[in-house]
Amino acid sequence: MEHGNLVVSSSPHIRSKESVNSIMYNVIIALLPATVAAIYFFRLRAFLLIAVSIIAAIAAEAIILKIRKKPIAINDGSAIITGLLLALTISPAMPLWMAVVGSVVSIGIGKQVYGGLGSNPFNPALVGRAFLIITFPVQMTTWINPIDGLATATPLGLQKMEGIGTGYLELLLGNVGGSLGETSALLLLIGGLYLIYKGIIRWYIPVSYLGTVAAMSLILGSDPIFQLLSGGLMLGAFFMATDMVTSPVTKKGQLIFGIGAGLITIIVRLYGGYPEGVLFSILLMNIFTPIIDKYAMPKIYGEVKSK
Amino acid sequence: MGATYEFYKGLWKENPVFRMVMGMCPTLAVTNAAINGVAMGLATAFVLVCSNIVVALIKTLIPSKVRIPAYVIIIATFVTIADLILAAYFPDIQKVLGLFIPLIVVNCVILARAEAFASKSNVRLSILDALGMGIGFTWALTLLGIIREILGMGSIFGISLFGEGYISWIIFILPPGAFLTLGLLIAFFNAFSKNKAEDSCCH
Questions:
Q1: What is the pTM of this model?
Q2: Which one, out of A94, B90, B125, B138, has a CA that is 20 to 30 A from the CA of A265?
Q3: In chain A, where are the structural domains located?
Q4: What's the ipTM?
Q5: Residues A85-95: pLDDT tens digits?
Q6: How far is B153 from B32, CA to CA, in rounded Å?
Q7: What is the fold, at CATH topology level, of the domain defined by A20-293?
Q8: Considering only residues 142 to 171 of chain B, which have any Cβ-Cβ distance to chain A shorter than 8 Å?
Q9: How would you label A43-61 residue by residue, b for 16+ Cβ within 10 Å and e otherwise?
C-alpha cells in the first residue's frame, strides 16, 4: 500500500542483517584459531578427527531431514558447528569411528528427534559428548601429550588424582594433554572475544560463568587462575553455554544461567567423581532454561502488577 | 471381535510395550541382557494368565468397591509362586532380576488386563487375552534385551558375537541405554505402522 512517499506496513520495522547463516559462519570463524591449534598440536590425528566429525554430522543431518521429508538445510552451517564442537571436545586418541558415532548421536538424538534446529533443549554437541563419555569411558579419557605423543593425563586430572599442578603459560598456550580444542585457553579466549565483538553472543553468560568459577575456587581454596585456564571451561563458556537455542534470552536469565553453570562446574571439579564438570554443568543448566526464561521475563511496557 | 482377535491383539496391535507403553518399570530396568528380558517376560506372562483366570472366575463375587485390592491380592499370590519357582530352578536369573520379580505385583499391564478385560469376560477369552498380552510383553522385552546385549556386551544370550576385540557400548547396559533403545524402537514401529495405515485408507 503506497500513499505518495509513504509505505504502510506492519511491524517489525527494523530488521537485523543477521541470519542463521551469518551467525553460524561467524561462530566457525571464531573457532578457527583453536581448530588450527588442535591440528598443530596433534597433527594428522586431529585433522582427521575434525574432518570426520564434520562430515558425519552433515551426512546425518541430510539423511535425517530427508527421512523427515523436510528441506535439506545443511547450508545453514549448524551441522558443521555441531561436528566441529564435538571434535574439539574429544580426545585426540579416539578412534575415528567413535567420532562418527558421536556426530550421529549429536545430530540424531541431540537435535533432530526434538524437531531440528531451534527446538533442541540440549546443546547437540554436548549430547554427543555425554553419549561418548558414558559409552566409551576408556577411549574418551585416554589423553596424549602434544609434545612427545605419549599418554598423559589432563591438568585437571593431574591436579585431582595426584596433586600435580601445571604452569599458567603452558595452560594458556596449550602444551598440555586434553581434548582437541580445550588445550589452548588463549586461542579460545580470542575466538570468544571475536564473537562478543561481532555481537553474536553477549558477555553475560561467559562472564558470569567464568566469574562464578573463579570466585568459588577462591572461596573453596583452589587456585582460581588454574581453574579458569584448564579443562573445557573456555570452550564451554564462550561456545557452548551461549548457544542461542538452549540458553535463556534475557540478561537476567543469562546471568542466572552462567552462575548456575559455574557453581555446578566447580562442585564437580572439586568434589565430583569426574575431573571435569563443564559438560554436565551446561547440560544441567540447559534443562533449567525454560524455567529461567519464565521467571526472568522483563515486564511489558505499561504492565501493572496484578492484585 | 472373535476369540482369535483377543489373542492376536496383544502381539502387535495392542502390544503392551510398543503400543500401550505400559509396564515401563520392568521394561526399562531388567532388559540389559536378552535372557533377563525372556525371564521377566515369561514370569509376567505366567502371572498374567493365572490372575486373568482367577479374576474371570470370581468376578461376580468381588464387590466392585474393593475390586482393585482383591485383584492385587490375587496377582500377589501368583507373583510369590513365580518368585519361588525362579528361586528354586533358576537361582541365577532370580538373583539378577532381584526386586523386579516382587514388583510384578504392581505391573500395570497385569492390573489393566484384570480390570479392563478379565472382569468383563469369560474364562476362555481371558486366557487368550492374557496369553496374547503375555507373549507380546515377552517378545518386546526380549527384543530390547537382545539389542542392548549385542551393543552393550557384544554377545547374545551370553554367546560372544564379535570376539575379544569388541569395544562395548557401555551406555546400552546402563539405564540411559534402556530409554534410548525403547524410544528409538517405538519411533521406528510408529513410522512403520503409520505408513501402513495411510496406504490402506487414502490411496
A1: 0.86
A2: A94
A3: 20-293
A4: 0.81
A5: 999 998 888 89
A6: 9
A7: Ammonium transporter fold (1.10.3430)
A8: 167, 169-171
A9: eebbebbbbbbbbbbbbbb
